[in-house]
Specification:
Layout: H1 2-17, E1 32-33, H2 38-44, E2 50-55, H3 60-75, E3 81-86, H4 93-98, E4 106-111, E5 120-123, H5 130-139, E6 145-148, H6 150-158, E7 164-170, H7 177-185, E8 190-196, H8 200-205, E9 213-217, E10 225-226, H9 233-240, H10 261-291
Parallel strand pairs: 1-3, 2-3, 6-8, 7-8
Antiparallel strand pairs: 2-4, 4-5, 7-9, 9-10
Helix pairs in contact: 3-5
This protein binds 2-acetamido-2-deoxy-beta-D-glucopyranose (2 copies).
């Protein structure tokens, strides 16, 4: 009996020591795990900007990046998507190849383009710290928020005057990332603006005395509603729900994939060079591990 238990324990520890194919991020991680299939729906078709890490679980630099990347993911929660693709996974290899991945980790920022499903993709070459990643991604968030000054207020208010509007009064001159995110959630149903504290006429019109203040104008000649809660994404999103339904986080599943069969041919060609890159990295990683 003792024997069996001991053996079982050894077997269990072996399993822990050699997690074959284990991905770097757990299910509970703030980092969203995507693969060649879900990328299209979760990332390419999103109205949000994403950063995607292409990695291999054995890669040392990927392991080193993990804490900063997870921190960036928590800090960007609700503002942008932070995702990872395990390129060591056999089924992901053609996809990683088609994305031009040649080494690990490769970080790409994916920003919605003019045509849905055709995002702009660029390599992230910045520092691999949480702050640098967060700043770069926020910088690439789509902005559907108008900055309004005193002289532009009346015309903005009368523009589509029956539709709902939300105004953030702020002491800052740049558009808040939080407001940009809310504008993405309510794209097409609520128009967003940010007005600076220094715009005295506008501030006076809405009797705003503290900054930031969010005012919701339901549309038509209905009274404005002042938001009294915390300046956080979830409660603000709930507050705006009294006017309109936000878009779901991702497009419903079952939509037809946009990658055509020609793309697949390209992908499998690219993947053969990707295999080489993957193999040489594997060797490099092993030798650096041996050296240390
Ligand atoms: C709203 O717009 C319509 C036409 O665009 C205009 O006739 C009406 O006076 C406007 N209402 C307000 C309150 O500005
Ligand atoms: C993206 O925004 C459009 C409105 O421009 C909306 O119809 C669509 O549902 C949104 N998609 C997602 C996935 O949020």
């Amino acid at each position: 009996m003792v024997h069996t238990t001991a053996l079982a324990a050894v077997a269990a520890s072996l399993l822990l020591a050699f997690p074959v194919e284990a991905s770097l991020y757990t299910k509970n991680s703030a980092v969203l795990q995507v693969d060649g299939k879900s990328y299209d729906r979760l990332i390419a078709k999103s109205n949000y900007t994403s950063i995607v890490e292409f990695y291999a679980p054995w890669c040392g630099h990927c392991k080193n990046l993990k804490p900063a990347y997870e921190k960036a993911a928590s800090n960007l929660a609700g503002l942008a998507k932070v995702a990872a693709v395990n390129c060591d996974e056999e089924t992901n290899k053609p996809f990683c190849g088609s994305m031009g991945v040649q080494g690990f980790p490769t970080l790409k920022i994916v920003k919605p383009g003019k045509t849905k499903g055709k995002p702009m993709v660029e390599d992230y070459q910045g520092q691999r710290t949480a702050k640098a990643i967060v700043d770069a991604v926020i910088d690439k968030m789509p902005n559907h928020v108008k900055r309004i000054k005193d002289e532009g207020l009346d015309s903005w208010l009368s523009e589509a005057n029956s539709s709902a509007k939300a105004i953030l009064f702020s002491d800052k001159g740049t558009v808040s990332a939080l407001l940009k995110a809310l504008a993405i959630d309510y794209l097409g149903s609520i128009n967003f603006a940010q007005i600076r504290k220094t715009e005295e006429k506008a501030v006076g019109t809405f009797s705003v005395s503290k900054f930031p203040t969010l005012v919701l104008l339901p549309g038509g000649d209905k009274e404005g509603i002042v938001y009294e809660g915390e300046m956080k994404k979830a409660p603000m999103k709930d507050f705006l729900k009294q006017i309109a339904e936000p878009h779901p986080d991702v497009a419903p599943a079952g939509a037809k994939p946009s990658r055509s069969s020609t793309d697949k041919t390209k992908a499998s060609k690219a993947s053969s060079s990707f295999f080489k890159a993957s193999a040489s990295h594997s060797t490099a990683d092993a030798s650096s591990a041996a050296a240390s």
